[in-house]
Amino acid sequence: MAIREIRVIPDPVLRTPCDQIVVVDDRVRGLVADLIETVDNDGRAGLAANQIGVSLRAFSWNIDDEIGYVLNPRIVELSEDEYQDGDEGCLSVPGLWYATKRAWYARVEGMDLDGNKIVVEGTELMARCLQHEVDHLDGFLYLDRLEKSVRKKAMRELRESL
């Protein structure tokens, strides 16, 4: 287990869709241990594998004193008529926080290290985390979800900070 370095924009691994995990082996077990140890830090709500340079579909979370992980997650349900529009940030986009519209409720299905199906769901912060981390695994950043004018401002601020 190790606390891994967080990859930051413009690292191309953040824009590359991650591969499905086909076999749970020692490499995947080590990845999960590293994801859990790395997310277990104040101010960290979630961490996708590509944020530590591994292009596999896995992420960990640290919400309300609960730490967990999911392999091969996919969003299977989002609230259709209830949204939240709170500030969102990202470890891979340090220092930038912008209001980002997300579904108020999200449900993700995936598997654990034993290959068993697991369901992770929640509202508000947990829902935001699930959507944010699955976006990472699909090669997207929260900046991609901003309204056009806000995104333009965010990208300008990002360029100035690099």
From TrEMBL:
Could you tell me what this protein is called?
Peptide deformylase
Cofactors, names only: Fe(2+)
Q: Organism's domain of life?
A: Bacteria
Quickly give the catalysed reaction.
Answer: N-terminal N-formyl-L-methionyl-[peptide] + H2O = N-terminal L-methionyl-[peptide] + formate
Keyword list (alphabetical) reads: Hydrolase, Iron, Metal-binding, Protein biosynthesis
Q: What are its E.C. numbers?
A: 3.5.1.88
Pfam family, any one: Pep_deformylase
Give the UniProt family note. Answer: Belongs to the polypeptide deformylase family.
The UniProt function text for this chain reads: Removes the formyl group from the N-terminal Met of newly synthesized proteins. Requires at least a dipeptide for an efficient rate of reaction. N-terminal L-methionine is a prerequisite for activity but the enzyme has broad specificity at other positions.
Q: What residues make up the catalytic site?
A: 133
Q: What processes in GO biological process is this protein linked to? A: translation
Residues that coordinate or bind Fe cation: 90, 132, 136
Q: Which Gene3D superfamilies match?
A: Peptide deformylase
> Which species does the entry assign this protein to?
Sanguibacter antarcticus
